[in-house]
Amino acid sequence: MAFFRQYIAPLFIVLIFLVALAAVSARAFLPSDMAQPAPTEENTAALSSRSQPMAWLMTWPNDLA
């Protein structure tokens, strides 16, 4: 267990850090239009098609009367 704690765990943490650093640094090499943040406005067509299967939940208490 001491071998894992002294050698494997720190190596694993450093590897995770290096992968995260490479992923964040890769944004510098993307084209300028892809390096921007994702849009925040909601797509109403996708929202309505996604909420249709759950529409019965909005009227559920009234159906019991």
Task: Summarize the structure in short.
55% of the residues lie in helices and 0% in strands. With 65 residues, the protein is mainly α.
Proportion of residues in helical segments: 55-70%
Low-confidence stretches: none
As a percent range, the share of strand residues is under 5%
Q: What does the overall shape look like?
A: flat
Please give the largest β-sheet.
none
Number of strands: 0
Rounded to an integer in angstroms, the radius of gyration calculated over CA atoms is: 24 Å
Verbal overview:
The chain is mainly α. It has a domain at 1-29. The protein is built from three helices and no strands. The chain has helices spanning 2-25, 44-51, 60-63. It starts with a helix and ends with a helix.
Question: How would you describe this structure in keywords?
Answer:
single chain; mainly alpha; flat
List the helices and strands and how they pair.
Blueprint: H1 2-25, H2 44-51, H3 60-63
